[in-house]
Amino acid sequence: MPSLLEALERKYGAKGEVHPPIDDMPVAIFVPKRSPRLSVPTLLVLNDCDIDCAGDSSALADKCADVVELDLAHNKLTDWKEVFAVLEQTPRVRFLNLSFNRLSAQLQAAQALQPRWDSLSNLVLNSTYIRWPSVHGLLKALPALEELHLSLNEFSYVNLSGKEVEENDFCEGCTRLNMDVTEPIHENLKQLHFSGNPISSWREVSKLGYAFPNLESLLVNECPITTLEPDPCDKCDDDSNGNKKSHDAFQHLRFLNLNNTCLSTWDEVDRLAKFPALKSLRVQGWPLWERFESTEHERRLLLVARLPHVRTLNGGGTVPPEERDAAERAFIRYYMEKPESDRPDKYWELVGVHGKLDPLVSVDLRPEKRVQITFTCGDIREVRTVDVYRTVSDLKTKLERLAGFPASKMRLFYVDQDLRDMQIGPEEMRFPTKQLYSYNIRSGDEIIIVSKLTLKHSISVNSTA
Fold it and tell me: Which of 96, 107, 122, 216 could anchor a disulfide with 134, C-beta 3.0 to 4.6 Å?
């Protein structure tokens, strides 16, 4: 199997040529500080090259001195000694992807601690089957690390003690690892990708928050998490652990992805509302939505009402004030018909804000399914009936024949009939996966179709004038 150096020479030539020489052509000659024949691109991708070692250190250092992003995913690296040899010869690397290399071998403490790599800020270790003591060693060796990817590594617990786990370290009552994080491990880490690991206990996930106290973004989607409750255990908890809340470990968390987890009650949503800094949240694919008989629009209204501080929900744009107000009123009306014992605390809180609302004749949160919209493209105007559950991307495809140009060259602008009378301009429909109903679209509204090329030309002419 080739070394990294040999893979480089195969791809760029023995002397590092990026482009083959061109004969019989006049060229402008300049003298760079460093000959391009002795270096490789600053963003270096060598996937699926069967690389298993670094190669000659002096030659590698000469070629990779200016590399800042290095992608070595899907290779044959198994020895951490070779990984560190690569890092030693690429002193400017800020991004390193080692995904799908089998790096389950134990990382030696001496390897990790000396030297320290102060430039590396983004490390990707997805599906490397790295062990927790090795993760701990790397964190100590990478003081500038801000983003870490540990997805698909079969982690069912979190152990950042730096020690190997013994059988008697697991609780007999709940089978969790009875080793808590007592102090921060890395205070610069801001983003952690932990998706697709078989971890089910939020208490284990919370260890990540205590280890990385300034964490701002956490992805635990595709993990079988059953509840956000700290799930105390009489056998392995002390009194202080029983008083911990699900958000205690995440004081600075702004983005959380919980898609396709096993959360199944509205209580979990109420717990998320207590995360002090949370602004962006993804909660799709929960068993709760399968049990709750409603449309996606109804679910969104109830979620928006329960999450007053979340600005972005399941992607897309920021929740506008008018949608939040409508959601809170819909929430009150939804629970007005429920027995008082079934009304959550949020109901009484919102009644205190909006008062007791008059019940509607028919409480139906679903938008009108089909509406009549006027489509305008240049001099062409046509009224069509549109399904409001269609996405913006799908609508563009359906409008290609009317517009006369492909969807990829198309921009859509929504004109609300009421706002048009108030001389308020159109809103661009910029999110391809957003469904039309989320614009509160109604019969009589207008959508303007504009070619990106025409818009660019118009902007260019105006700027020239």
Answer: 107
Q: What is the DSSP string of 139-204?
A: HHH-TT--EEE--SS--SS---SSSPPPGGGB-TTT--B-----S-S-SS--EEE-TT----BHHH
**Distance separating alpha carbons of residues 351 and 387, to the nearest angstrom:** 34
Q: Which amino acid is at 69?
A: E
Judge contact between 71 and 45, C-beta under 8 A. Answer: yes
b/e map of 425-438 (b: 16 or more CB within 10 Å)? ebeebeeeebbbbb
Q: Write down how long the chain is.
A: 465
Tell how far CA 131 is from the center of its chain: 24
Predicted confidence pLDDT, tens digits, the chain (465 residues): 899 999 999 888 765 444 444 455 555 555 555 545 445 899 999 999 999 999 999 999 999 989 999 999 999 999 999 999 999 999 999 999 999 999 999 887 555 555 678 899 999 999 999 999 999 999 999 999 999 999 999 999 999 988 887 766 666 656 667 777 668 999 999 999 999 999 999 999 999 999 999 999 999 999 999 999 976 666 665 544 556 899 999 999 999 999 999 999 999 999 999 999 999 999 999 999 988 877 888 899 999 999 999 999 998 889 999 999 999 999 999 998 889 999 999 999 999 999 988 776 555 556 678 899 999 999 999 999 999 989 999 999 999 999 999 999 999 999 988 776 665 678 899 899 999 988 888 899 999 999 987 765 554 444 444
Exposed, middle or buried, 77 (CB in 10 Å: 0-12/13-18/19+)? Answer: buried
Measured between alpha carbons, how far is residue 11 from residues 49, 214, 347 in Å? 10, 41, 63
Q: Which of 23, 156, 42, 19 is nearest to 95 (CA)?
A: 42
**What is the dihedral angle through the alpha carbons of 333, 337, 341, 346, rounded to the nearest 10 degrees?**
-10
Contact 297, 365 (CB under 8 A): yes
Task: Report how far Cα 380 is from the mean position of its chain's Cα atoms.
Answer: 41
